[in-house]
Write a structure and sequence with these properties.
The chain is mostly helical and 106 residues long. The chain has helices at 3-24, 40-46, 64-76, 89-99; strands at 28-30, 54-56, 59-63. The protein has one domain.
């Protein structure tokens, strides 16, 4: 085994140990220790998108303070509501005809 491969293997093992210690420590969330009410799958997808999250080995962790700040910021950001489709069938048909370059004749 060459030196680079040995160092890579050692780095992976050290990173895994550090992750275990940090994710088990109070004050951090990870996929192994997801936030309350969140699944491990959610944590795998979302923790890396939270500002302040950092990668330890192959996993992402985020502090409770950064997670809480993200929740507050996300709650204060207005969400877009989807426009409700019109129930007027004639208006929908007329719009479809116009989009196709046709005229509706009554």
């Amino acid at each position: 085994m060459d030196l680079d491969a040995l160092l890579d293997e050692l780095a992976d093992r050290v990173a895994a140990r550090v992750l275990e210690k940090l994710s088990a420590a109070p004050g951090h969330y990870s996929a192994k220790n997801p936030p309350p009410g969140k699944s491990k799958a959610w944590a795998l997808r979302m923790i890396k998108t939270i500002p302040g999250a950092r990668k330890v080995g192959r996993d992402w962790i985020v502090s409770v303070a950064d997670f809480d700040a993200w929740l507050v910021d996300r709650a204060s950001t207005p969400t877009r509501t989807k426009a409700r489709p019109s129930n007027d069938v004639e208006a929908l048909a007329a719009e479809a005809f116009r989009a196709a370059g046709l005229r509706a004749i009554r």
